[in-house]
Amino acid sequence: MKRLLSRTLILLLFAMSLTACSKETTGLQDGYYTAQAADFNFGWKEYVTIMVKGGSIVSVEYNAENPSGFIKSWDNTYMQTMLHANGTYPNEYTRYYAGQLLEGQGETTIDAISGASSSCSSFQKLAAAVLEQARQGDSSIVVVNTIE
């Protein structure tokens, strides 16, 4: 009986240690995490910031700023120009991509919007980096080369 109990206990401890390891490598740690582009592209530097609470992403911000700190999705002139040229604009596609990351919790692929495929590529790189930061619990800003 003692032998059976000790084997069961050893197996239980082993199983618990495997579970703990898998949580550490795949789970997201609570906090705020940001990834930003290494360089300005057409006058804008993109970034993604997520907030993780209870191991889940609860908010996502995707945007870009110019050297003075002005936010791309607030630029009405740029919005009108891009809308007429590409059929979309920053306030639309940034929310769309951020919403996909939030809904999929980083586990699904991001679908590109026609007219904003370059931004989708940047977003995917930034999202991958910010998710890795969240897995590690590293709240420092990670800089990502987003220009191909």
Could you please describe the fold and organization of this structure?
The protein is α+β, with helices and mostly antiparallel strands and 148 residues long. 48% of the residues lie in helices and 20% in strands. It is built from four helices and four strands. The chain has helices at 2-26, 76-86, 90-104, 117-136, and strands spanning 31-37, 45-53, 56-65, 142-144. Strands 3-2-1-4 form a four-stranded mixed beta sheet. Strand 1 (31-37) and strand 2 form a beta hairpin. Helix 3 (90-104) packs parallel to helix 4 (117-136). The longest helix has 25 residues, at 2-26. It is globular and about 40 Å long. It starts with a helix and ends with a strand. The relative contact order is 0.18.
Quick structural overview:
This protein is an alpha+beta fold and 148 residues long. The chain is 48% helix and 20% strand.
Structural class: alpha+beta
Strand content: 15-25%
Uncertain ranges: 11-25
Spatial strand arrangement across the major sheet: 3-2-1-4
**What Rg is obtained from the alpha carbons, in whole angstroms?**
20 Å
Number of helices: 4
Q: H/E element string?
A: HEEEHHHE
For the largest beta-sheet, the strand count, sense and barrel status come to:
4 strands, mixed
Q: How many β-strand runs?
A: 4
Task: Specify the helix fraction band.
Answer: 40-55%
